[in-house]
């Protein structure tokens, strides 16, 4: 256990690995607001957090789970800020019972994830990994791939990331893009240029050569072997 002097300033615990990793310096902004910033264990091991959490009024958390046991250890917590786009890792019911406000950063990594998605699709269709591995082993086989404009791409989930992927594929590569999202009205999906709408997941799977998944699961998987 690490002991530290208790500060008179309100404490913000930061466990997000990438916090302040860019050009901005958010820690300095918090300190200028007369807050004490305490870096802590990014995997949220309770033993490692037993010292900073009881003093925290705010917690900037990464992707690691925030459970009821964590919230029990921080009675003065008022805000839990997820340094990411989702709430999947947070026990929202436990936070609500303690009147802890939970926030996230929607849109923070939309463009990066969309770029990465298109890169992965290209890698699969053009056999980048197999070709690289073969070349490193001194072999140069003929690997026949597909142009990205040739296959139909099914986008499962049409939030910010799904829409960004669809725009890259339909506008940049000329792909046929078909989307499905049970929570977004079809007419709103159709407002995105070049995007068609499937009635359900099974129709989408029957039309698509490539499926790109951009929605969280619930009680079970969104896409399974039976679907594909």
From TrEMBL:
Q: What is its EC number?
A: 1.1.1.95
- Asked if the record carries the keyword Ion transport, the reply is no
SUPFAM superfamilies (alphabetical): Formate/glycerate dehydrogenase catalytic domain-like (SSF52283), NAD(P)-binding Rossmann-fold domains (SSF51735)
Enzyme class, top EC level, equals oxidoreductase
This protein's UniProt keywords: NAD, Oxidoreductase
Against InterPro entries, the record matches this protein to: D-2-hydroxyacid_DH, D-isomer_DH_CS1, D-isomer_DH_NAD-bd, NAD(P)-bd_dom_sf
Q: Does the keyword NAD apply?
A: yes
- What GO molecular-function term can you cite, just one? phosphoglycerate dehydrogenase activity
> Which parts of the sequence belong to the D-isomer specific 2-hydroxyacid dehydrogenase NAD-binding domain?
118-216
Q: Output the PANTHER family linked to this UniProt entry.
A: D-ISOMER SPECIFIC 2-HYDROXYACID DEHYDROGENASE FAMILY PROTEIN (AFU_ORTHOLOGUE AFUA_6G10090)
The UniProt entry's sequence similarity note says: Belongs to the D-isomer specific 2-hydroxyacid dehydrogenase family.
Protein name, as recorded: D-3-phosphoglycerate dehydrogenase
Gene source species = uncultured Rubrobacteraceae bacterium
